[in-house]
Amino acid sequence: MASFSWVKISANSYEQKYGFMERFFVRFLGEEGKATPFTIIAALELVVGSTPIDAFESRLRETWRALRFHHPGIAGLSGSSGKIYTVPTTVEAVSEWEHASFKRHSPGTTGDDIYGAAQRATMMTLHFLPNATDTSHQLVLQAEHQHIDGRGVFYIFDAFLTIFTTPSLRDPSVVIFGEEWTRLPPAMDDLMCLPPAPSEEDISAARKWLSPLAQISPVAVPDPTPEQLGDSSPEQLSPQSRSIRLAVRLSQSETSAVLAACKLHNMTVTSAWLAALALALGNHTTPDKTAPPLGLTTFSTIDMRRYFPSNGTFDANKQIACYHAFMPVALELPPPNKEKGGLITLATRTTQDLHPPSSIKGSYPTVIQLLGDRISTADPMKSAGLVSPLGVIDQYLKKTYGSGEMQVNVKDVWIADTMMGGTKLWMVHTWDGRLCLSVLYDEAKFGRGRMEWVLERVKGEMVVGLERGV
């Protein structure tokens, strides 16, 4: 088995070599202070009591320091060959880290503002966005993806709010640094028991797993006419790269209908959403009769905790780290005007594809390496992009923490990745009984009207297709 344990490299510093997924994200890192892809931005909207903003900020800062004590991985940095953690040996060192990693913004700043203007920051950063006229405030987490994944974001928010509403967990007499490095997260490669390098069998299995992608003509984001957009002139693109997040929420009644239909047809919400995405893109793409059939070719995030040991000695839910990967998805669309093969048929087929056997786990490093090559060399405008189903956030994050004066209510939560060039990321999650469909893109490549038009069609294909039962 490969060994990616934390190794002491100086008097107070420890290093963990990059695993296969971290190497993927590090490959796309840009310069500090400049826009870079795959930066995680996650927002949490909180409703609190009448605590003055300055006092609220003080407790947030105290909680942020305590969170590092309990989960030191939040203070890890990206080195040339691995993640590096340095134990702070003085109060000044802790204060210096806090000053660099906790930012208060002017009232009126939104999470979308932080997302659109995100530049590479080597430190995981917590942004405090106060509301001067209300009791609701936003917290926005910014992190390099090699340090955390989507589910890890929910775990970090849960841990933060638990500490925030539990004074004993942030008591200065308890939060004493020195031995906290022993709580740094294990590497995913070790938890999966992967060998130092893939075997020939694993490489062969990976190429076989990827082969369906080459047998389909990929659908891409259609370019609607001004008439379809309800406008008389083409959209103007931004002259500068800027990440945009668009989201459409289903009502509670629409969500309930979707969940009931998925249960009736023995399929997952993720598979229904992917089928809807394929149809929304494919129904507005003219097929080439001489080319392979049209379809959705993409890579979907997959939680790798399913491959971790379950002997009770390790709780992956308490780890804040990057424990996900990507898996290939190839979904062939039916020929035009074919009666059978609607959303139900496509979703049923996708449900099977989204559950790879455990024997395939040795193939992930090769799949991820080839995905990196694909992103680096292929034209992203000719593909659908990447997809990320985040599941039911309520399973990881509570709506209420604490009680009395300490009570905090979670009003909303969302997560995004910065996108550059023509790469897109489609996401889906459920929060507070409502499905949310979103897309992340670069406004220098796609107009807002175009992406809103497509996103509404994804929703329509999903809701109407499940309603009709075809």
Automatic annotation (TrEMBL):
Give the superkingdom in one word. Eukaryota
Q: Which Gene3D superfamilies match?
A: Chloramphenicol acetyltransferase-like domain, Nonribosomal peptide synthetase, condensation domain
* Ranges where the record places region Disordered: 220-241
Q: Which InterPro entries match?
A: CAT-like_dom_sf (IPR023213)
Spans of biased composition, class Polar residues?
Answer: 230-241
Annotated protein name in UniProt: Acyltransferase
Species in which this protein is naturally found: Immersiella caudata
